[in-house]
């Protein structure tokens, strides 16, 4: 086109860059003052991953009932109620984080279990891990239940020692 100046070869054109900067500035002006959506969303997501509200009802080998609620928020673990002796809420929260898929989805319904009795302990867990509901029953009446209990021992407490 006659009369149109073209940049010399190897020299950048600043017009597209200036246009992009102007558009970014206009978009930034549209945001609410002090609003940082990306940072807030990341904080909310981290909080949801670390969030746990779980009620545990446990019947031990002496047919005594223990009920407690475990609450985990980021690095804070609290327990309210009557957990087993020497209960460590922080270890329980770590176990929940490690086994969250199992708590939410439950055991594989097609797994094969050995027919061995591990003890009379049984536990019901209800609540939420993040935004996922938990509704799980664990007992020690067969090999699968024994394995489940061992997996969640930091959350449920150790089973009774077998009689000699």
What does the main sheet amount to? 5 strands, antiparallel
User: Beta-strand percentage?
Assistant: 15-25%
Based on CA atoms alone, the radius of gyration comes out at 28 Å
Strand order of the largest sheet: 3-2-1-4-5
Helix and strand run: HHEEEHHEEHH
The overall pLDDT average reads 76
Please estimate the helix content: 25-40%
Overall 3D geometry? globular
Question: Regions with pLDDT < 50 over 5+ consecutive residues?
Answer: 11-31, 45-50
Q: In CATH's first tier, which class of the domain at 50-107 and 115-156 applies?
A: Alpha Beta
Give a count of the beta strands, DSSP E runs of length 2 or more: 5
CATH domain fold name of the domain at 50-107 and 115-156: Subtilisin Inhibitor
In DSSP terms (H or I, runs of 4 or more residues), the helix count works out at 6
- Given helix and strand content, the structural type is alpha+beta
> Could you tell me how far the N terminus lies from the C terminus, measured between alpha carbons in angstroms?
100 Å
How do the strands and helices of this protein lay out in sequence?
Layout: H1 15-30, H2 37-50, E1 52-59, E2 65-73, E3 76-81, H3 89-98, H4 100-105, E4 122-129, E5 132-139, H5 143-151, H6 153-156
Walkthrough of the structure:
- There is one protein chain.
- This protein has 164 residues and is an alpha+beta fold.
- Helix content is 36%, strand content 24%.
- The protein has a 5-stranded antiparallel β-sheet.
- It is globular and about 40 Å long.
Descriptors:
164 residues, alpha+beta, Subtilisin Inhibitor, 5-stranded antiparallel sheet, 5 strands
């Amino acid at each position: 086109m006659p009369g149109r100046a073209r940049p010399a070869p190897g020299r950048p054109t600043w017009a597209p860059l200036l246009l992009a900067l102007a558009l970014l500035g206009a978009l930034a002006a549209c945001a609410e003052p002090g609003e940082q959506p990306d940072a807030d969303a990341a904080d909310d997501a981290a909080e949801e991953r670390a969030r746990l509200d779980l009620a545990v009802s446990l019947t031990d080998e002496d047919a005594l009932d223990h009920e407690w609620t475990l609450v985990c928020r980021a690095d804070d673990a609290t327990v309210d109620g009557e957990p087993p002796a020497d209960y460590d809420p922080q270890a329980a929260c770590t176990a929940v984080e490690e086994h969250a898929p199992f708590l939410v989805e439950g055991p594989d319904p097609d797994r094969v279990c050995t027919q061995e009795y591990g003890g009379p302990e049984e536990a019901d867990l209800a609540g939420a891990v993040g935004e996922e509901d938990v509704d799980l029953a664990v007992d020690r009446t067969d090999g699968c239940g024994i394995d489940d209990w061992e997996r969640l021992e930091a959350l449920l407490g150790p089973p009774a020692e077998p009689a000699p």
